[in-house]
Each structure stands twice: as C-alpha cells, then as structure tokens.
Specification:
Belongs to the ABC transporter superfamily. Spermidine/putrescine importer (TC 3.A.1.11.1) family. By secondary structure, this protein is of the alpha+beta class. Helices cover about 25% and strands about 35% of the residues. The protein has 2 domains: about 230 residues, P-loop containing nucleotide triphosphate hydrolases (Rossmann fold); about 120 residues, Beta Barrel (OB fold (Dihydrolipoamide Acetyltransferase, E2P)). A 6-stranded mixed sheet has the order 6-7-8-3-9-10, with helices on both faces. Strands 11-12-13-19-14 form a 5-stranded mixed β-barrel. Bound molecules: adenosine-5'-diphosphate (ADP) and magnesium ion (MG).
Amino acid sequence: MAPTAADNAFVEFDRVQKSYDGETLVVKDLNLSMPRGEFLTMLGPSGSGKTTCLMMLAGFETATHGDIRIGGTSINHIPPHKRGIGMVFQNYALFPHMTVAENLAFPLEVRKLGKSEREAKVQRALDMVQMGKFGGRRPAQLSGGQQQRIALARALVFEPELVLMDEPLGALDKQLREHMQFEITRIAHNLGITTVYVTHDQTEALTMSDRVAVFDDGRIQQLAPPDELYEAPQNSFVAQFIGENNTLTGVIKSIDGGRCAVQLDSGEVIDAMPVNVSKPGERTKVSIRPERVEINKSRLSPDAHTLKAEVLEFIYMGDIFRTRLRVAGREDFIVKTRNAPDQVRLQPGTTIEIGWLPEDCRALDA
Ligand SMILES: Nc1ncnc2c1ncn2[C@@H]1O[C@H](COP(=O)(O)OP(=O)(O)O)[C@@H](O)[C@H]1O
Ligand SMILES: [Mg+2]
C-alpha cells in the first residue's frame, strides 16, 4: 500500500489533557504524532503520566480535553475490538486455568476466527517468541521470562497494527531483560508494528527506540531520537534525567551568536553554548557530559577558558577511567576517559586544568 497522510500521523495525541479528580491535571498538554512502524518510548519518573497516556490510547481511560486519533480517526469513534491494539503489561496476567495455546487462541476466538486459522496463528506467534514447544503448558509451569514471552505472543497473535507495552520487562532479571529488549525490537521491526513502549529505565529507552518522549509532570519535555536526546538535551530536566551529567550553576555574562560566557557562582568564567538562555544576567545551569571534559589542555583552542580541578578519586573500570574532581566549589565533578595506551591515570591530590569545547557545554534553564 502506498503511504498516506494518515501513515505519517498514524497515532496522534492532539492537545490532550487528563484529570482523574476534575482538579489536577496529570497529563497537561500532550502533542505527539507517530508515523506507522515507529517504535516510540515514553520515558519518565514514576507519576509523570506515562501509564495514563497509554490507557487513554488503549481506550481504558478517556481524555478530559483534546483528541487522540489512530489512522486519522478519533478513537472515540472506534469500538475497542476494532482498534487493533495489542497490549503487554508488567504483570502479564495470563489466564492461569488455560494452557499457553488456549491463552493465545483467546483473542482470536473473540475475533471469531475459525479453528484451523486459530491454530496456525497461535503456532506462528509461539514460534516468533521461540516458545513453539510450550503450547500445552499452563502459565504456572513456566518461568517469569517464559510467561513474559507468552504475554508478548498473545499481544501479537491477532496481528495488531499497534502494540502498547507498559514496563513489560520490569520483573525480569538483567540478563533476560536485555535479551527481551533485543527480541521485542526485532519482532516489532520485522512485523512493521507501531509500538508505544513505557519505561522508567533510560538505558532501555535509549537502546530500543526510534524516538523517546521524555515525560515529567504531565508534559513531554523533549521528543527526539536517542542520540539527539543524549547529546542535545533541550532543558535541565532532560540533561539530568538522561545519562550522567556534570552541572555547574552561574549567570550569563555575555552572549553572542552561538556562544556565551557564564560566570559560575564560584567566580570563574567558562565558555558554553546558549540553549535556552537569551540574555546577560540570566541564571543558568550548564551541563557537560563526563566524556566531553578535556584534561589535555593542548587539545583546546588557545583562548579557551579553563578551570582548576583537584583530583579527589580515581576509579579504574576496565574500559574507562572514572575520575572525581573538585571543580568550582563542587566535589562531584566526574571525568570519564577511555583506557587507551597513552591515557594518563590522574593521581588523587594533584591539581590539573580542565576545559571543553563550548559546543559540549550547554547553558540550560536554571
Ligand atoms: N486511576 C487513577 N485515579 C486517580 N489518580 C490516578 C489514577 N491513575 C494514576 N493516577 C495519578 O496520575 C498521576 C500519573 O500516574 P501514571 O500515569 O500512572 O504515571 P506513570 O505511569 O508515569 O508512573 C499520578 O499522580 C497518579 O497517582
Ligand atoms: Mg506507570
């Protein structure tokens, strides 16, 4: 089929608000447009409104204001069984009295498929999650990871166009979780399914998603592909929520085109890139990734501002060195360097000079 306008906005949230009690908004102003086939993750702290958004999309909750559309049609006008949505949750709730195969056949019976068609689809879905031989077992006879695979197969068995997953891997141990992260994205991409995935785990979000919507306080703080989110956070919340980050506070001293000078509260001046600051005198939090700090001054431009730093702690981590410094009155400034043959191991007690490229230091909202 040729893509249509509705394919580019297959799932749309249009100025959506939600209040449960008629007073406080838990979703404040949600605007989101997903193309068909996209894997999008809603990432954010507990209580930021992620599950509420998923429930509204699934039709279990109604929006207080605004409109949600699937394939160009407002979901209010689509009966639940015609929405074609598969769902997987953390407590996967398989029916305990049914076998695995019966669990999978259930959504097909609801949709009135015949027996032979049901059996073929059930087997295909089980094979997809590498559980082809387990159709005759009951859920209690499976490990947690196997049950979660079955829950995934049950969500996919009726070939939905849209799959919603709410922290589906939260109950699994680390190794299995990482394996399932890979499996889920592989299956979703192979089948061309549009997926909305919810997690509070930033690594999971970064590794699985085409785009990530970072939620806080009922709003999307930033919606971007993983690399952009990590390298170009648009505000302090996103900078601190995603990855490790050094934060220094100060006041904008001068601002000129793509550069600004920031006078830190400790008195020193540093170079930064103005992101959401606009004029001298404004307070700012500047954000520098630990791997973008330069400890070799000769690699910086001659007029770059540098800071004095005292080495407090050196941690050998195998692939990288993690060094904690006292910088601008803080004792939690982290530098990460690669364990390369010519890399120096900084000695605690010594004083060094550090700097960075202005574009690696982002002046954000205070
Ligand atoms: N059924 C409900 N009734 C009343 N308040 C709710 C209900 N579900 C969630 N909330 C509240 O809405 C806010 C957002 O919750 P939720 O969408 O579950 O966030 P998240 O999934 O990001 O942790 C929270 O303050 C939560 O307490
Ligand atoms: Mg939730």
